[in-house]
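A further point concerns the way the authors explain their paired sequence and structure data. An entry of this sort, consisting of the sequence and the corresponding backbone structure tokens, reads as follows:
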Amino acid sequence: MTHSPVTPSVANPSAAPIGSFAGRHLGSDSEETVAMLADLGFDSMEELIATTVPASVRDTEPLTLTGLPVAMSEPEVVAHMRSLAAKNRVVTSMIGQGYYGTHTPAVIQRNVLENPAWYTAYTPYQPEISQGRLEVLLNFQTMVQDLTGLEMAGASLLDEATAAAEALTLCRRQSKSRAERFLVDSRCHPQVIAVVATRAEPLGIELDLIDPRTSEVNAADYFGALLAYPATDGTITDFAALTAALHEVGAVVAATTDLLACTMLTPPGEWGADIAVGSAQRFGVPMGAGGPHAGFMAVTDKLRRSLPGRLVGVSIDAAGRPALRLALQTREQHIRREKATSNICTAQVLLAVMAASYATYHGPEGLLAIAGRVAALTKTTADSLRNAGVEVATTEAFDTLWASVPGRADAVVAAALSDEINLRRIDADTVGLSVDETTSPAALALTLAAIAGVNEASAVEVLKAAVAGAGANTTGLIPAGLVRTTPFLTHPTFHSHRTETEMLRYLRRLADADLALDRSMIPLGSCTMKLNATTEMLPVTWPEFAELHPFAPADQLEGITELARNLEQWLVDICGYDAASIQPNAGSQGELAGLMAIRAYHQSRGDSARHVCLIPESAHGTNAASAVMAGMKVIVVGCDDEGNVDLDDLNAKVVEHASDLAALMITYPSTHGVFEEAISEICGAVHDAGGQVYLDGANLNAMVGLARPGRFGADVSHLNLHKTFCIPHGGGGPGVGPVVMREHLAPFRPATDQATNPAGETQRADRVGAISAAPLGSASILPISYAYIAMMGADGLTAASEGAILTANYVAKRLGDYFPVLYTGARGQVAHECILDLRPLTKASGITNEDVAKRLIDYGFHAPTMSFPVSGTLMVEPTESESKAELDRFCDAMVAIHAEIDQVVTGAWPADDNPLVNAPHPSEDLLVDEWTHPYSRELAAYPLPELRRNKYWVPVSRIDGGYGDRNLVCSCPPIEVLAEA
């Protein structure tokens, strides 16, 4: 393959060939770059970087990427991705184990999954510009609540296994039992058990892995339980009596469950479960070799304020209209430093949107038809196997059967595979099969032939007859006492969009309510929002990637595995480390994996006493939360007046904890947006005391090609592929948080499902266990970052970092006279983001950073990050993919807002009635007969002339968050409420 050259990272940016991918990714052309450099007083990019990045961390040699000599063009990378996809083998999957074939309705694939209005949106922390995705997330919560029979559901978690792990800790903190052990049903899916075990160990929680169907359970021994309903072998069990016994002693009961099965089964909430967890994958979200998929958790009403993750609630806006928001301050609901109980900081919003839209499109009748067909085929298959003399171990089931084939399992699996069908090999004597929405009678007939030698042709006719007879009243092998009798999805939303016309218009209306990157710059500090190029997105929906089961035989996953290993190596090259794991499916999970590796490393050396983790007070809350979850004690280190780590405080605490210091967690560039000069000195002090340095990679977008953490002192980092490496934020997820580390920590990477680690070495017995459900994590979106790196090449990636630093400093310079920049580096520059201090203006005018954030909506912008890491400020991160014109448009808006604040300071506008405190202004509030405000409607709607040509109209005015928390409603409200409004 031949590759096109990419722009070299030199002072002359005009070297980028016209039409190169890097030239299209970088927002400013050579003339704009020169102009911005001149405004900053620099003659070249090299001069800016030399002034900004400390020499002590700066790379002394250019970045090179293993196996990628030069950047690929867009057509070349598409062809290359096709060649990787061709190495995968897509067959009919009947493996089950929590992953199922599903039909993604084309209207949802095209208008959600492939639509930048949905996939480039940010987390809905600014609810006024997020009403569309908040509405669908409310649908998701309602769907999960209805199907599980519980009162409250969250807006998605990372996957089923991590949701089960969250249930473990929720049970522990809510249980009234004094018992120390937790019961785990041995018939939960293996990956669920593995992740729960990983989470339990550092917290000192003892797990009892038993089968409560066949073993006597002494309820008093447990503070909680995780029960499988249905089980991994398909078995459906009535746990009402066991649950009652556990409740009697104060224990909390969680259940893993399946949403499609719950359309026909008595929901777990009805037999007493306090918590239900699972995956919404089979609701229209492809298997994708393991993810991303929307995990879910539903709880009883008494647990609502302990629910981990995000919760969408109904509130009202300033005019009394119903409006949606994240409830109970779920942005940091459980991220409370050393008091944290969960490190969840993201969700799977894009996938939750798909799953909720799937339920909306099909409605309850459609879901019951799909479920009835599955149940009918499962029963007929079981009957056919028994009639052929095969022992079917599963007697009561919805979609899964385990069959006994003494000594023949390998032969049966091979025979099925010869007919392009994957069965699940349980052991040498047992095989499993799972029926799903996509299973055809012909495929099942071939499966019967492989297992029992049943005549294929006759089997097809029998199975077709089963399908024809399936309906809403079909109960299959579901025990009579566990057949669902309660209705679900009764809200009009799930009955109003059955035609494609209606569904298309519904999705368009929702998208139009939101503000995403397809409309304007999203200048968020700490959460890089950059171009997610269309070419990068193309492979995600290719069947060769989308239709892979994560536990398919390794030779069927060769393409995605090669892609993942190449990507891991590139990340190692970029960061200067020695090894990587792509498994963590969020940045928070990457943090946990890295800290667990440090803990395992210390223990392997007999240093079990090392349990203290030093964390600067400026750090993101997930740092402390992850440390607590890894069994560490958090000690906070102060920062000086310049926003840097206070070296005196750090050194004092290093000395104090020399015998028990496990790690320092530090973000670089700092959370305050500067390159700290003393980072190598800091790392050296920690190492001298026997500790390890965890460098949070959230701000890597300022370092790629310029500095490598593994070379200037760090031992391990997690990276945010949804920040630096272009995986879209998806409205609040998915994310990917791979962990990269030095050689001595490499043996402690998260375990895979194989006996060897990715590099081929045998896994250690003391290695860190599974961090997420699938070995490759969110594998189906890894092609995005892979394509980005391949098309940018080493030089393009370096130019991107330079561009990010340039744009941040340009914005800081343009706005510094109006809003002081709180922190700069030793030579007056910021890194890739800057903190604008609004506190002096607030003191003079009463106008807060929230007022400015809401007024920016009228100007067509998403707000910068509010109040983090410093209360009363705005943190701005422009990224390299925004043009100078867009940067100037944002700066013009901020300057105009400053002028509006001056009007309040001078008394021209009252402090309680001005365009800032009344912002944002929806059209409904402007189109009134009487206008009583001291400013004009024109100023409210069109504060800059260009907005007359391109105006985003916010659907609601400012939302009353307190009202929503006091009157918590977290499912679709009755239609009468909306009608009255």
Summary: The chain has a mean pLDDT of 93.
